[in-house]
Amino acid sequence: MLEISNNNDLPTIPNKRYFTIGEVSDLCEVKPHVLRYWEQEFPDLKPVKRRGNRRYYQRQDVILIRQIRSLLYREGYTIGGARQHLAGDSARDDILQSQQLIRQVRTELEDILKILR
């Protein structure tokens, strides 16, 4: 997950819906060509493209870019390692949600069994 402490030195993200590549570059302190490269390497990073193939990033994209930046520049991950790390985070979240759902269903089934007895 995003570690806020690693991004304290970055500017705060304004309360806007869309950001241009230049704005994101300034907010994340990453060059625009690096952002375009990361789009190819990280499947979750998909800015909206509009007229003239202009990129418009949303707030969650900016947060993801900051997380990628932290993994690569501060923690020393490779591109592949960062990609796996991010995929692992979502996989862990899926597993936790599944376990929670199983516990809930099991509790409900036990309650039904008590009623039937």
Query: What string gives the helices and strands in order?
Result: EHHEEHH
Count of helical regions: 4
Mean of the pLDDT scores?
86
Widest sheet, order of strands: 1-3-2
How many strands appear in the DSSP assignment?
3
Q: Helix share of residues? A: 55-70%
Q: Do you know the CATH topology?
A: Multidrug-efflux Transporter Regulator, Chain: A, Domain 2
Strand content: 5-15%
* Radius of gyration over all CA atoms, rounded: 20 Å
| SS-based class | mainly alpha
Low-confidence stretches: 1-6
CATH class: Mainly Alpha
CATH architecture: Orthogonal Bundle
Q: Mind summarizing the main beta sheet? A: 3 strands, antiparallel
| N-C termini distance | 45 Å
Principal-axes shape call = elongated
* Number of domain units: 1
Structure notes:
- The protein is mostly helical and 117 residues long.
- The chain has a single domain, classed as Multidrug-efflux Transporter Regulator, Chain: A, Domain 2 (Orthogonal Bundle).
- Helices cover 62% and strands 9% of the residues.
- The protein is built from four helices and three strands.
- It has a three-stranded antiparallel beta sheet.
- Residues 1-6 have low confidence and may be disordered.
Chart the SSEs and their pairings:
Layout (H helix, E strand, L loop, with lengths): L17 E3 H8 L3 H10 L6 E3 L3 E5 H16 L4 H38 L1
Antiparallel strand pairs: 1-3, 2-3
